[in-house]
User: Fold this.
Amino acid sequence: LLWKMTLGKRSDYGDSKFAGLEVPFPGDVDRAVQDTLLCGFDFIVTPLVRPGHKLASPSAPSTTHSAPPPLSFDDVLYMDSSQWVRQVVGSVSGWIDPDSPEEQEASHSAKALQAELGWAAHLGIQAVLLPPIKHPLACTRFAQIANQTLEGITQMAMWLTVPIDHPPNGVEDGQQQQQQGTGAPGPFGSVAADPWETWNQFRSLCAHDTLLGCVLKLGPQLPPPQQLQRWLAEPVRAILLPTHVFTTNKKGYPVLPKPHQELLSTMFNMSVQVIVTGECVHQTPQPVSLPPNPTPAELAAAAQQQQQNFISIDPTTGAGFTINNPGEAHPLRPYWEYLSYLFRKLPVLGSDEQLEADYRDYLQAPLQPLQDNLESATYEVFEKDTIKYVQYEEAVYRALCDRKACNGGKASPVVLMVVGAGRGPLVSASMRASARSQVPLRVYAVEKNANAVVHIQALLRREGWQDKVTIVTADMRTWQAPEPADILVSELLGSFGDNELSPECLDGAQRFLGPQGISIPANYTSFMAPVSCHKLWNDVKAYNDREHFETPYVAKFHRHYVLAPTQEMFSFSHPNRATPIDNNRHKRVVYTRPVELGSAIMHGFAGYFESELYKGVWLSTHPPTHTPNMSSWFPIYFPLKEPIYVPAGASVEASMWRCSGAHKVWYEWTVTAPSASPIHNVCGRSYFVGL
Assistant:
């Protein structure tokens, strides 16, 4: 099965292992596909109609009521079998311009576009590649025809070609074109010159359809990295890589400039495919061949030829490849080999990253800790995060050492209560801290889930801690402690810090503490940033109701772009000595974006937290301070009902409330600039955490 030959022969980066090749209009599709597969590529991109073909001008109405079909056998890419449909991407004719200012050309182009898209849908190929938009920010007719096709298909993807030359094609550095649209000119001299702006208008006109993606066509020079970052959140399906973009190494073979290498590595990690286009513009050695019984002289000559055929890709490491067989003699094989080399260079995913890979850009409902009892498998997933429990152990250890120091070095017994003990990992961490500090503990493990308590019982028997740990099967809100606690330990933090009712639970449990008692964690603060995340937003949109757009989700952000640095939101400290205790909060934040970053689209907010467990011992999901290798918490995602366009240089203003009632806690959020959104989740009508 030739199409099983994957780029770099790796499977840990998803569909990014696939590479395609743009080929001329084939007279024989089977032969074109097989030759391409033999070279190592996985699919072809080829015209849907013969080059130069244009629809005939409309004729007078026929009296027979029969009109000739728009396309004929001699005009089209023809496949009489579905054998190769997954290996073929059809490209629409580049001359088509439905938004031409010349009405006759526009009308003719519109009919041709409809005919070619109709033929592609009929074939059932995996995708169709649309040509670049010729009139930036003026593509309504193009989008209207694309929309009509999208309404009638369920499988075939539609990819829009977006050139990202820098400076943009036809725009010299510093040249100011007449501005079209709103917002500051931005880094491209005008809004119209920014290729992202054209893409954003087109996909907005197509209602952010999930079958619509984009293909970035690279030029010899790329925009600055900070501008390329916007594309990380977009549905980029492939990178179109012309052969003339490759430079030449000392032996005359193709290599990519450093910025192109870095972009491809990033896109490979995002499961983006790559398509090579253009003729071979680098010399290609011939394969080494030997007769059936070679003489010593023939072997020596072959060895010399083999050495000459070695293609060096990285002189610093000696990496390269040798052309040995007919498939590798394809003129574009060196480009494929080079891409394979780049793919193999990607760092190997660690065990934690591989575990998290299935959760990338996947919506998960936050826990309802007081209403639901977790299953054993859920506890087990959380317990695999050893880093978190190392931090808890260190926090308890430091607290015990401080107690010991306050007692003049005397190790008096300390009463420690674990509230929400689960299956006992915090009990184990506390007992390890006790052994390290040589301070004896009297532990109460309080857990309302009777099934989880069975695991704590097994733990105590296994470790011989029955005389040191008392199991309490009760809700911490109603249990009456037999003695005051010196230390209160809990792991009630959620992805936003306070979103799993840690403030309410610990405020209630602090009655267990003695006058000098402490809480671990001691405090926590949430952070929030505006985020672009096409995939997650479309997954929410698929529910087609208000409720899901007013629900925060736990999400492992992958294909996303953070528009501006995070801002601090809500802070809580324990024990809470305030009178009266009020855990309601409101925060208005302003995010600024430098104009050189360009415009962007905002799909909601990403939330994180930092928590100080005890005197310099931290747990953090906040990107600037993220605890290394910790995986217990993914960020939280607050979606917006409608994406908000953020012009270059514009600020984002937002407000969020943490509200509480007699039986529930909920969040409300809104955007007030650059445009206003409705206030989401008013009165907790769609989502709340039950008390």
About this structure: Residues 1-6, 170-183 have pLDDT under 50 and may be disordered. Residues 103-123 form the longest helix (21 residues). The longest strand covers residues 600-614. The chain has 16 helices and 28 strands.
